[in-house]
Amino acid sequence: MVTGSTSGIGLAIARRMAEAGYPVMLHGLASASEGSALVEEFQERYRVKCGFSSADISSEEGCIQLVADSREALGHPAVLVNNAGVQFTAPAHEFPADQWQRILSINLSSAFFLSRELLPDMRESGWGRIINISSVHGLVASENKAAYCAAKHGLIGLTKVLALENADCGVTVNAICPGWVETPLIQPQIERIAQEESVDLDQARTRLIGAKQPLAKPTKPDAIGSLVHFLCGEHAATITGASMPVDGGWTAQ
Ligand code: NAD
């Protein structure tokens, strides 16, 4: 089950896993017809069973709904990728309360509620993988991202606790911490720089990425998909509780 897999990194993860033969539960804020089109495309292209849910996971009920949809479509999910996430930027002293709540609930609480729902089956079957898509902002801070940094740091804390609690039963829990990945999530930040600094979108993208990443190239979403696939494989069986930067050297500084 890959949350937020109708777009960006989540879609790339879902594609990589389907390509490797895993049945995939697709999920995200898309219409029923967009969801069915995606399921059809996946089933035709990758020849694996797929399902889709548009549950809004900003609430506990929404998370429970996603788990129910998933069990109905595919049975018990043995791999959970907590990827869905949103962004909003403003200085903390101007940060709207509703944006704070929205980011904390989607980027952090959903990972807790979904893990809580799926862990009993993973523990009982003796195998499971939980992979949390955190961010460099789970390891270091940037201004104007109070809620996002708080949620992503929290997600790393949750990763460590779940890794310890489930170390005895074949379930590993890890976090991936990407730097800039070119997806719709970062588009508003590119557009803001273009407007504020009167440059075109390409220049704005280079400025945004180069300001933090020594290796001033965005990571391709597929690279995150391949790392998720590796974490599900035999050679990653003893990797647990880790937070892995994929950040062009950002956190090496
Ligand atoms: P995106 O905007 O392309 O996709 C976000 C996905 O989350 C979509 O499928 C959307 O439908 C889903 N979603 C959002 N709110 C939801 C809700 N309430 N209920 C259900 N689904 C919801 O984003 P992305 O760039 O692919 O980001 C994916 C993850 O990677 C996020 O957690 C993000 O914080 C993290 N990340 C992204 C970058 C980057 O540079 N793009 C860097 C580091 C970490």
From TrEMBL:
<dbReference type="InterPro" id="IPR002347">
    <property type="entry name" value="SDR_fam"/>
</dbReference>
<protein>
    <submittedName>
        <fullName>3-hydroxybutyrate dehydrogenase</fullName>
    </submittedName>
</protein>
<dbReference type="Pfam" id="PF13561">
    <property type="entry name" value="adh_short_C2"/>
</dbReference>
<comment type="similarity">
    <text>Belongs to the short-chain dehydrogenases/reductases (SDR) family.</text>
</comment>
<dbReference type="InterPro" id="IPR036291">
    <property type="entry name" value="NAD(P)-bd_dom_sf"/>
</dbReference>
<dbReference type="InterPro" id="IPR020904">
    <property type="entry name" value="Sc_DH/Rdtase_CS"/>
</dbReference>
<dbReference type="InterPro" id="IPR050259">
    <property type="entry name" value="SDR"/>
</dbReference>
